[in-house]
Task: structure prediction
Amino acid sequence: MPNASKGEEEKEEILKRYRQLLKACKPAMQDGDKKLIRKAFDMALGAHKNMRRKSGEPYIYHPLAVAQICAGEIALGTTSIMCALLHDVVEDTDITLENISLKFGEKVARIIDGLTKIEASVFDSKTGSVQAENFRKMLLTLSDDVRVIIIKLADRLHNMRTLDSMARQSQLKIASETLYIYAPLAHRLGLYAIKTELEDLSIKYTESKEYRFIASKLADTKLERNKFVKNFVEPIKKRLENAELSFEIKGRPKSIFSIMKKMSKQNIPFEEVYDLFAIRIIVDTPPEKEKEDCFKAYSIVTDMYTPNPDRFRDWISTPKANGYESLHTTVMSTEGKWVEVQIRSERMDEVAEKGYAAHWKYKDQKKVKMDDKADYKSISKSQEDRARQDPASGLEDWLNRVREMLENPDSNALDFLDNFKQELQVEEVFVFTPKGDLKKLPTGSTTLDFAYDVHSDVGNKCIGAKVNNKLVPLSHVLVNGDQIEILTSTRQKPNEDWIEFVVTGKAKSKIREYFKEEKRKVAGDGKEMLERKFRNSKIEMKPENLDILLDYFNLPTVTDLYYLVAKGIIEKSSLHLQEIFDYEKKKELDTRHKVAEHHKARAERPQPSRPDAVFIGDNATETDLLYSLAKCCNPIPGDDIFAFVTIGEGIKIHRTNCPNGTDLMANYGYRVQKARWASSDPTKERAFLVGIQIIGTDAIGIVRGITDVISQKLQVNMKSISIDTVDGRFEGGIELYIYDTSHLEDLMEKIKKVEGVYSVDRRS
Ligand code: MN
Result:
């Protein structure tokens, strides 16, 4: 019986994977742990027994894989492994949290609860604001136990690795969310390997074409690269050996994501990305000699190759806030190419790859089960001073800042998300208080950020500062090493512009909070004023009538209305309440009339024989939905696209690699619809406006060459052309009418061949 044997095969495979998991757990296991993991595995196996993944595989492969990632790639301990195995059980099966709590205890149940809450809802619910609110809830669980987030990242990583079996639209949505929030979170928690893989897997779906292009280029150049690395490394090896260092050297290509970012940011072709890979020297040395030996290796490298003085980074003396420690330098190779070299100890390398968890493993010296011994919550206050030089204290600072934002009861969820995203940007400056205490702030922070970091009252009353004894304004941007003394005045109060020049989440939320409070006070007066106006006009102040006013002034809430009433909005519009009501009534009748007309006209109009250009929705083959093409990315037929349902402006078609696309899909996934172009239009009836940018040397005749290609050879219509030449450099922008992507590519290829042209790019 083929079925029975297939079932047997699957059983075998499940057990094989389970044994693999045990092997990965071994380094951290203690007596009794094996039994616990088995118990969790048995429960998960039973609970998911009749379920399958989209790929058709038994569902249990998924929790097993997530547990495997937690054990092998993040070095988490037994509690986390159990939770990973059980992470989908409460969400998807009949098993309840009480069942879990009875069988595995409170701690496991709490983590599963956190995981279930995230699983259900972060980006998946029906309305935008709820999504952000759920996100906030997810982070509240983070402040309880960071393991929830780490296991969630492992879960997401496995889902990304197996995304191929999902529908295209889900792929886009999941990949966008991953890029928007999960990859930055992984970065913030110091999980570099996972962050990099999440990014690469995301763009594999959101920017498939570019991804495939770079991946194939990397494969093509692999041999050449290996040879280069070998030649580069050989002489260093000898010197390191002579210095009696024990070490390992790796030459790794940079991630596809980072190469792609570099290409688009600097607008250069693949061939010109000079740091396609980094050389990493990992020194095996005891903790007390780490710094010394890393610098020894550094001096050997820079003896042999000239370093670029602008590109030296010492993350060992001052580790990054996420715990990252390493020396970075970029040196000139004998072949005239810049090469980035990273130098770190074995411990630093493991922390960099595996993040937080690995850090605590080392902190406890022995290889103990980190997640049972170290209580995440209790690390902080008492150890704060001692921890000043401790790389994890930066992370702890960050968790504290997030906690602080979370505890602010009336921070609006979307503001919160915004602030949080900002806090995720990890690049930072190191500055000092007047007493010489070190503070880390995000790059771009101003004196005002510093003031709010000290205390919200100091921020609210801040009038300026002395930076290195020089008087500077609130908006002064801080640089490494600045020493800052904040100046305050009791008469000072926050100004609306302040929000523009602070970058920390804390400062933003405190300023917003101040104005919200102010607004509430003013709105109270406004409400009384409006009540009087209603009474005088003999109109009842009931919700329907307030809605009419909200419509008239186009305001979202009554608080806004009261606030503006207090600020004199009705007086300024020089209208009486009664007139507003009359006007709104008339407008409503008008629109009703117009809508009826519109329907009539539509019914009478002959339908075009040609199919519509864009189909919107699942499996759509025809559509009469009205749509427009988004201005931000100007899609044309042939581009990978999606439809986005806007509020008030109908359906917009965006390119999947639109600069706004990730945000839209991640935050408003429920408003994203599948869209595709109708098979290309053979009659070429419809042309689309596309902007291209041409850069070249200002050779005589270049403009003529270009316009010849466009209008003579290809007979494409131009809408506009603008040209700038500065110091022999030519920069032109041309707007053209194009049928589809192959038309555009053909044209761009031909322009590239014009003498003097250096690059041709499509403008988004
Ligand atoms: Mn899962």
About this structure: Residues 62, 87-88, 155 surround manganese (II) ion (CB under 6 Å). The chain has 30 helices and 19 strands.
